[in-house]
Amino acid sequence: MDIQQIMQVVDASFAARQSIEKSLREIDRRALNAMVLVKRHGNALAGYGVVAQAFRERAASLKESASHLQGTIAPLIQARMRILQHQRVAASFSTMAQSMARLGLDCAPLKNSQAQSQKFIAQEETEARGILLRLIATVDTLQEGIEEQEYVVTNGRIEAALAEDTGAPLVRVSRDMGEAVRTVSNAIRTYRHQLESLEHESSTYI
Amino acid sequence: MKAAPIFEAGNHRWWILYDQDEHRVIDSNVYVMESNGQSIILDPGGFEVFPQVFAALVEVVPPNSLKAAFVSHQDPDIASSLPLWHACNEQIQWHIPKLWDGFIRHYGALEAPLQDIPDEGGDMLIGGRRLEFIPAHYLHSSGNFHLYDPEAKVLFSGDVGAALLPPGHGAWVDRRDKSGRAFEEHITKAKYFHERWMPSNAAKKDWINRVCKLEIDYLCPQHGAIYSGDNVQRFFEWFDGLNVGTAINE
Amino acid sequence: MDMEILQDYLPEARELLEKAQEDTLRLESEPGNDEILASVFRAFHTLKGGAGFLEADHLVSWTHHLEDLLDKLRSHTLTISASMIDAILKGLDVIDDMLQQLAHGESPAAGPEDLGNVIQQLAAGQTPYLQALTAETDESGTDATTCPSTDTTLLASQRITVDGHNGIYIERADISSHSAPGSSDEISEAEFEATLDALYGNQAPGLVDPPEQFCPDGDKISPEEFERVLDHLHSSQARGYDAQDRTAHTQPASAALKTDPPVPRITRQDQSLYAQSQTTTPAPIVNLSARSQNMPEAADTTLRVDALRLDAVMNQVGELVLLRNRLASAVSSLGEENEDMARIAREVDLTVNDIQSTVMRLRMQPCKRLFQQLPRVVRDASRQLGKEVKLDIVGEEVEIDKTVVDALSGPMTHLIRNSLDHGIEPPEVRQAAGKPRSATIRVAAIHLGDKVRIEVSDDGRGIDRQFVTQKAIDKGVITTDQAARLSEQEALELVFRPGFSTKDQATDLSGRGVGMDVVKETVRKLRGHLDIQTRLGLGTTIAMEFPLTMAVLPVLYLRLRREIYALPISSIESLLDIQESRIHRMGGRSVYRVDGTQVTPMVDLGALLNDRPLRLGSEPIEGVLTERGLFMVSEVLGNEDSVVKPIDFLAEQTWYQGATISGKGNVVLILDPGALIGHALEYPSTGKMPPTDRRGAA
């Protein structure tokens, strides 16, 4: 697989992580805002309070999932970089072998080293692919969390409509929550596409 | 390896990547400065630790932001990863001591863009910010530079200030200790390194005179931990009083 | 003093007193209302009876005089006048003082002699003013001299009755009684006094108001006479002179009621002549409970509970709330596998919430309790100042925490007086300005979500900011430099500074040291918020907002670098992501543009509490928007219903409202947003803390 492609995925990971972190902070803030609003209106908004609490709890678990994401990206990058390292070594071996061949020399230990090197690369490729699949699974979990969060937001909209006569700006708060969730959802979907294309590449490579 | 922020002001940031996982090679710190979305990596490290340095780096900056690298001198713990970085990003401009140009290419990056720094030093721009190459010849290498960021008041000091710390060490010489005891403790782990790897008392004097004129909040060595605040001055005083080149200079 | 009786007596007495005051004020507009007159009479009578039980002799004596006056009013012997209402109201104040003394376990001291005399003179049908002028030339022809001096007198003694209670026995001394001290045939006034003194220590009042019918008119003691004698003796058991009641327990003489002669005008000088001796049988006074028969029959549904017990319940609920928080925190750290625990924690959470709101309701009292004193304040002050004022009260039924009701009574009075004194113009001035002669003061309580807003507004002259600013400079409250930086609103708020009083000479009414600063401090201590609005020439409104309950405090936890603080949620509008482009400098201060219309002062808590400003872009920063300004913090962590623990180790001048214990079991300081913003506005360039407290949270 092309190093540039890997670099693109690494860049995408960085961007996705930043975007997810930012959106999750935003979601958490929205949830807290909703809680503040509920608290400030006493019992009148108790129904919305339940929604806001759920929203906040989901936001916390999204944060948790996102941290797993980061924990999986780093090993993937390390594995890919080890492959790069060994490709580099392998390339030296192959240059050496070519020069020797030009001189009509055959060096068994060198061949052996070359083979070792290739084997190592293959192992690393397999491992990297395993990590990649785990990463995709983590992203799946995150996406599920987002879906749940979207469901909570929908509930919030309903509660907001019900509590409209209290004069609390719940509809706006709900819309803000919805927007924050949508942002993170988009970021994750884009990231997932990038990972999938990498996965596709790596499977054909092997 | 871990990443920790050193300095942050808007879009201007410094990080240290430290406490490497591989212990068969000397433990080295790698520094990253980012300005306006462009970044430079300082003494990017050895071939063996490249994967972990790279993985730690991309926690703090996106790899496509990397525009330049600075190599203080020719040692393998500093520059042997050059071909791998180059493979990842051919755009990286390598600022290296002119004296070592032909040597460094031996690491296997014949086509990499190397920018030679003349003996008297110079400066460069990254993301709109100016960084200065401070001559530090013979400390310990005969062609040796440090890098100064006048805005962040960070001096990357290569092997000067280096200490040999056990795995799991922190990034800083205790910042909150006002008594200086933490420094005293730390500096015992730096003493032999300076006595033996630094060859010349004259070079040492020259360097101290040079950097004393700089405003320095963070003195960042390539091994060990960062000196900040009062510890910077403590280090200068300690170094000033230290006899170096001890293999012949007892 | 019988503490148990006292415990029963005091709250009831206070209610009676409040009712009596309300009634008396109503008498002004309805002087002929017999029902009200009877009600006030009964109030004094019941107060007296209870005081007798407690052997609070001066209170007995005092209420007796008032009762006497009211008795004559209700029987239309006398006609009510403004000076009488004044005297009654002042008399009520004295009773209030006496009740205070009782509450402190002291026996009340004697009431003010002047006022006592005035009341007695009024009851005697004299105008105190006239009396003063014509003391020597009493024109009354029907004085006690018409009562011929006789050889007999009444003897009174205190003995145990057959049913074991203290009884007062009245006997005619001409028939020698076994109980009479020194069974002399004749008791002089001095001897009589001595007897009283012996019975009641040295505190028996002088002989007063001897009624004419004590003149010999036969062998019988009429119920009227009997009652009077009893009253003079401060019987601990005397009930009102009431025909129906009396018939049940004393000699029937209902006819006496109808034949009540006009109350004679008898002055003190004549009293020596009144003592008469008659009748035979000792007459034990019936022992009645001090509990008034006039109380509404609500005993089945309401229960009087000692406020201390309520406080105890509240404190215990507070502990429960803290434990609930810790449980929730502990359970959430167990992770998801512990569904059972999580469910239990949720149910505990709900139950504690229920208990919390129930206890909160227990402590709620209608604002009526707070407002009912105000008509009197307005009445007195407007008379004194010669101003015409109408008082509108709105929202008496709005309920608020007892603590607030209790603590706010003084400040409310002050605000009203202040408004009358400084705000409202004299009628001529108003007229000249094209306003109605009569000013209006409006007092309102409004329920707003988790808050109650209490407003005091007038349609007076408003507050002149320039004048206020100049005064503040003159008084050294602020410097000229500071004055130059003040916004209009801040200039106005100078009136809340200690040491500020806009009148050069403290007036009797509103300038007695307790100033607006005390009002502000009280509001602050109640975790409330004070706001002042004024329009020159049109009036002033002072609004106070209080949390609905003091039992729990919903807080928002926030992190400032390594430290955790709490902010009361009631003060928070919303949480913001700080954007550098929205920060502006105005007049040396940072302000934040929240949206198109709202610009608010910005306070960097890092600068204020850590002496080290937060650096935007260099460290995480979030914004907490409060009503009064935007706070910059490192991170907002979450909310919790918490309980305030007062902190006593901090100096008075402090930025903290108290402390709480977080779900994780840490002590967290609760910031006072008002104090922080106030400080930041005052010293915009420094983040220096006052030297008194430099310590943040542990």
From TrEMBL, chain A:
Taxonomic superkingdom: Bacteria
Protein's UniProt name: Uncharacterized protein
Biological source species: Acidithiobacillus ferruginosus
From TrEMBL, chain B:
Domain of life assignment: Bacteria
Protein name in UniProt: MBL fold metallo-hydrolase
Protein's organism: Acidithiobacillus ferruginosus
UniProtKB/TrEMBL annotation, chain C:
Protein species of origin: Acidithiobacillus ferruginosus
This enzyme's EC code(s): 2.7.13.3
Enzyme class per UniProt: transferase
Keyword terms: Transferase
Name of the protein in its database record: Chemotaxis protein CheA
